[in-house]
Amino acid sequence: MCAEGVEKLVNNQPQDLKIGGNFEDALRIEVDQANSSPFTTEIEHAAPPKRFSTHSFTCFKRDSDPESHLKHFKSLMILHKTEDALMCKVFAMNLRGAALDWFHTLPSGSISSFKELTYVFTKKYTSYQTIKKNLGYLFNVHKKSDESLRDNIKRFKAERANIVGCDDQIASSAFKRWLPTECELYRELTISPPQTLIEVFATAEHYALWDDDQIAAKKADQVAKQACKENGMRISQPHEGALAIESYIKFTIPIHQILAQVKDMPWLKKPSPLQGNLTKKDTRRYCRFHEGYGHYTNDCFAWKRHLEDLVRDGHCMEFISRRAIQQIKDCDATNNEPLRKKPYGSTRS
User: Hey, where are the domains in the chain?
Assistant: First the structure.
């Protein structure tokens, strides 16, 4: 029987199944349906192949995409796709709840092939099909104003994974379109466009590190401003190794990069060795300022604190903005701190 014939047969079921009717007749029909099968005699009597074992299928309960369920089923039954009767029986075994109830409402002997079964199945649950996103969608979604670059990259990768047929070249172009034109990463991808998508994401990852540091510095700036305003004094300094986020100086590059550029300068002071049991320290985290394990250089408060002192002595001024210099002056004035040996803005080393 063709698929259209099956559909016609399903639509022409007795009316007493749909609207009730005599109770005894309805009960008799229900019992007959429970003892019968929608499959033809050939499918019912077909014996399973030797050494066939039931796979771990995801059961269908009506509330998921029927096409995705069929793809999942076919991929597990790839070695048995030519055995039509087996495909029908195993598919029916993995229906649950309302979907199983629907299956048993199909007329007895109406399904003679797996093709017919999939036709009536997808037609029944077509309203649960997931609308697939196309390539145009990827070009029409942009970075949110309050979204970090790292979160933006993560969201782009997730969206791209949901689009079938999106090759690397299209993804590279779409990713650039996601970015605001004033974004530094957009400028980098325009001036020196990477050759592959892997290179695009590698470049984006470098800028994400920088963006993370900027966000942390902005939060630290807000904390310090509030503390200066409310308490008229600098925020108390935590112990060495604590996160370097409670400072009001905003640097233009990550502080581990500053250390790499000034590590040989004579005015750089070496810190005291890290305390504690070395065997219990996290060897995945290395601090180049302490030259030891336990925390990252970017999280080293001792280095951040020393870096602030160096700025007040006129060093490392190329790593902060003019606005940050003015903030230092304002906060020091509020705290009545004495002037340092060298004036702000000095570039002498």
Answer: 3-128, 135-213, 242-334
**How far is 305 from 293, CA to CA, in rounded Å?**
19
Place of tokens 């004033």: 182
Phi, psi dihedrals of residue 283, rounded to the nearest 5°: -75, -5
The whole-angstrom separation of Cα 248 and Cα 334 is 14
Residue type, 216: A
How buried is residue 331: exposed, middle or buried, by Cβ count under 10 Å (0-12/13-18/19+)?
buried
Taking only the tens of pLDDT, the chain with its 349 residues reads 565 665 655 565 554 444 444 555 555 555 555 557 899 999 998 888 877 776 677 888 877 888 888 988 998 888 888 899 999 999 998 898 999 999 999 999 999 999 999 999 989 988 877 666 666 777 777 777 778 888 888 888 888 887 877 788 888 888 888 888 888 888 888 888 888 888 988 888 888 888 887 788 777 777 777 766 655 444 444 444 444 444 557 788 888 888 889 888 989 988 887 776 666 677 778 888 888 888 888 888 888 888 888 888 888 888 887 666 666 666 666 555 554 544 444 433 3
Beta bridge partners of 287: 292
Written as six digits, the tokens of 220 are 């630290």
Kindly write down the DSSP assignment for every residue of 227-256, as one continuous string: HHHHHSSPPPPPPTTS-S-S----BSS-HH
**Beta strands in the chain, from DSSP E residues, in sequence order:** 286-287, 292-293
d(CA 138, CA 73): 29
Contact between 287 and 256 (Cβ < 8 Å): no
Task: Identify the three-state secondary structure at position 18.
Answer: helix
Q: Of 133, 184, 179, which is closest to residue 159 (Cα–Cα)?
A: 133
The CB-side HSE value for 84 (13 A sphere, CA atoms) comes to 12
